């Protein structure tokens, strides 16, 4: 009887741990495939207006477990609107992962290392092309895109922008 009670307690603790830490998210692929937005032409005779690449960088691994690849681009549209785009993007999934546009070129496992950032919201998916609207603000000095797990304060892959 004691063994059965002990086994039930262990099972309940493991399930609570999975619920709290959301370990299952590390094994789930969340695919996104957003098209690159294009602007309508100014007139009937002009072509579609393509955005200009302001900065770009490749995602690198944060550590041996938090791995990723793909490209981050900051795009500027002719109307002055800016967009952050991930292309050929693939990272390990996790709980509560947010996208930050940060001032630092060398993020570490500490939010202070970002030296300031713009929170662009939850990561839409861990695989595929995706777009994030950037606020109408001066982007000078922002030199990296950082994926950050808010729940545990853990650095995920990041891209240094050049």
Question: What key phrases describe this protein's structure?
Answer:
162 residues; mainly beta; eight-stranded antiparallel sheet; 8 strands; 12% helix
Average pLDDT metric: 87
Helix fraction bin:
10-25%
β content, as a range?
35-45%
Number of strand elements: 8
Continuous helix count: 1
Radius of gyration: 20 Å
For the biggest β-sheet, the strand order reads: 5-4-7-8-1-2-3-6
* Multimeric status of the protein: single chain
Structural class: mainly beta
Q: Unreliable runs, pLDDT <50, ≥5 residues?
A: none
Largest sheet: 8 strands, antiparallel
Overall geometry comes to: elongated
What is this entry, summarized?
By secondary structure, this protein is mainly β. It contains one helix and eight strands.
List the helices and strands and how they pair.
Elements: H1 2-21, E1 52-60, E2 68-76, E3 82-91, E4 97-102, E5 117-122, E6 130-133, E7 144-149, E8 154-160
Antiparallel strand pairs: 1-2, 1-8, 2-3, 3-6, 4-5, 4-7, 7-8
């Amino acid at each position: 009887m004691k063994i059965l009670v002990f086994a039930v307690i262990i099972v309940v603790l493991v399930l609570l741990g999975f619920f709290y830490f959301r370990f299952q998210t590390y094994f789930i692929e969340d695919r996104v495939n957003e098209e690159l937005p294009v602007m309508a032409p100014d007139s009937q005779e002009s072509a579609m207006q393509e955005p200009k690449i302001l900065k770009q960088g490749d995602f690198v691994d944060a550590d041996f477990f938090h791995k990723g690849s793909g490209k981050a681009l900051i795009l500027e549209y002719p109307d002055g609107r800016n967009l952050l785009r991930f292309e050929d993007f693939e990272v390990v999934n996790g709980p509560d992962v947010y996208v930050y546009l940060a001032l630092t070129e060398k993020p570490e496992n500490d939010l202070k290392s970002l030296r300031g950032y713009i929170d662009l919201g939850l990561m839409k998916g861990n695989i595929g092309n995706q777009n994030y609207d950037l606020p109408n603000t001066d982007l000078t000095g922002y030199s990296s895109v950082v994926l950050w797990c808010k729940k545990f304060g853990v650095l995920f892959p990041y891209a240094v922008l050049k």
